[in-house]
Amino acid sequence: MAESALDTAIKQFHEAADRAALDASQREILIAFKTVFETEFPVEMDDGTFQVFRGYRVHHNNARGPVKGGVRFSAEVSLDEVKALAMWMTWKCAVVGIPFGGAKGGVIVDPSKLSQNELQNLTRRYTAEITPIIGPDKDIPAPDMGTNAQTMAWMMDTYSMGHGFTIPGVVTGKPVAVGGSEGRYEATGRGLLFILEEHLREAGGVRGKRIAVQGFGNVGGVAARLMHRAGAIVQYICDKDTGIYRAEGVDCDSAFAFIESGGLLKDWTGEGERIPPADVLTADVDVLVPAAIEHSLTAENAPLVKAPLILEGANGPTTPEADAIFLERGIPVIPDVLANAGGVTVSYFEWVQARQYLHWSEEQVNEELRRIMVTAYRAIQQRVASNPGTTMRQAAQWIGVERVTEATTLRGIYP
Q1: Three-state DSSP class for 267?
Q2: If DSSP states are collapsed to H, E and C, what string results for 167-187?
Q3: Which helix (H) or strand (E) holds 376?
Q4: Do 309 and 192 meet the contact criterion of CB atoms below 8 Å apart?
Q5: 68 is catalytic
Q6: In the CATH hierarchy, which fold is given to the domain comprising 33-165?
Q7: Whole-angstrom distance, CA of residue 151 vs CA of residue 178
Q8: Structural contact between residues 277 and 229, judged by C-beta atoms closer than 8 angstroms
Q9: 276-305, pLDDT tens digit by residue?
Q10: Distance of alpha carbon 203 from alpha carbon 207, whole angstroms
């Protein structure tokens, strides 16, 4: 049986716990989930019938502050997946030094099969179900796979109506018109660019580097577009059905504009050879960016990867077995808990703005994002340099676990 995302998350935790010299009781505390909420709820469909959906919201650890994490609408959602993502969020927030713990939510649904009205009904009912455990001082949801800024607007409105006044800080990733932050939409992709630029700073930067991006949604699509604009040659892109290759570089601006308008890559008429999506992972390029789903890089395809550098855009795209193969082959992996932390970092900025009723410029947001991402990257590289044989993932997990352990120890256990 294949290892689940939760199995991977727990294995990574114990490796970090070994390095941080945690004892059995500390491990037991940090591996526990504070809240596991499961609900089944009816939603009215356009034809007047009702359909029951299952949803989850998980809080992993709140030692460093309110918990934070996205809401995923996907037919593949499972409780184990949500728990793994919540745990990764805890370490991610700690790695970049923002005062949040980890959470995640999800509903088992294929959003492409629902109308806009049905999606709104589903979102509002799910929000009503989890209202007792969310709030700007408790748990702040955000967009994830299958959800977007409109979803967050519905969530904020539903929560606010139940309290009798507008509470913009209850979610992040909202439209700017209702309290969202400038730069939030591109934050995860921009954070990937900032990390890649810093990693390649002494090797001439990203200009001219050949890139392959697996996944062309809000993470991969934005990252590809920004890397293209920064002078990289994005030769490969793909969604789950279609891959595109162009030696001179795909026109990422045109391709992503088509996707944003509701299209699919298979229908985009831009230049490029159509290839199987799986070929993107084994492309002969300088940088591979897996930005789709968990466990894309496995023991089966890791030996075939040709890129000398992997930059993780998705959460958990690399299995432990693939990690071991990359280590043996000398291929560095810039891990998800650092590389894709731009989204939660700008979500933190949005939350701060909401709590203070301020509005930052996009220039201010991007400047602060770069500062935080670069600081975190350098801390990880310093840990790697002072501990020979340690990978960037191991160093990042080590730092994250260490910081959460420190907060837990300082706070103590009540009562």
Answers
A1: helix
A2: CHHHCCCCCHHHCCCCCCCCH
A3: helix 362-386
A4: no
A5: no
A6: Rossmann fold (3.40.50)
A7: 12
A8: no
A9: 999 999 999 999 999 998 889 999 999 999
A10: 10
Closest CA to 101 of 414, 333, 404: 404
Q: Pinpoint the alpha helices (H) of 113-263.
A: 116-130, 149-163, 187-199, 220-229, 252-260
Distance CA 182, CA 179 (A): 10
Q: d(Cα 184, Cα 402) in Å, to the nearest integer?
A: 28
pLDDT by residue (tens digit) across 192-246? 999 999 999 998 899 999 999 999 998 999 999 999 999 999 999 999 899 999 9
* 187-334 has the same fold as 33-165: yes
Supply the DSSP symbol for 239.
-
Domain range list for the chain:
33-165, 187-334
Catalytic residue among 104, 113, 209, 266: 104
Confidence at residue 3, expressed as pLDDT on a 0 to 100 scale? 75
Residue 125 pLDDT class (50, 70, 90 cuts): very high
Reference 139, options 241, 60, 73, 217; nearest CA is 60
Give 189's pLDDT tier (boundaries 50, 70, 90).
Answer: very high
Query: Mean per-residue pLDDT for 316-336?
Result: 95
Percent of the chain with pLDDT strictly greater than 90: 94
Mean pLDDT of 152-172: 97
Residue 63 phi/psi, 5° resolution?
-65, -30
Question: Six-digit token pair at 158?
Answer: 């539903």
Residue 81 backbone dihedrals phi, psi, to 5 degrees: -65, -45
User: Environment class of residue 32 by beta-carbon count within 10 Å: exposed (0-12), middle (13-18) or buried (19+)?
Assistant: exposed
| Closest to 176 (Cα-Cα) out of 152, 209, 146 | 152
Q: Name the CATH superfamily, with its identifier, for domain 187-334.
A: NAD(P)-binding Rossmann-like Domain (3.40.50.720)
The 10s digit of each residue's pLDDT in 58-71 is 999 999 999 999 99
Contact criterion met (CB below 8 Å) for 272 and 254? no
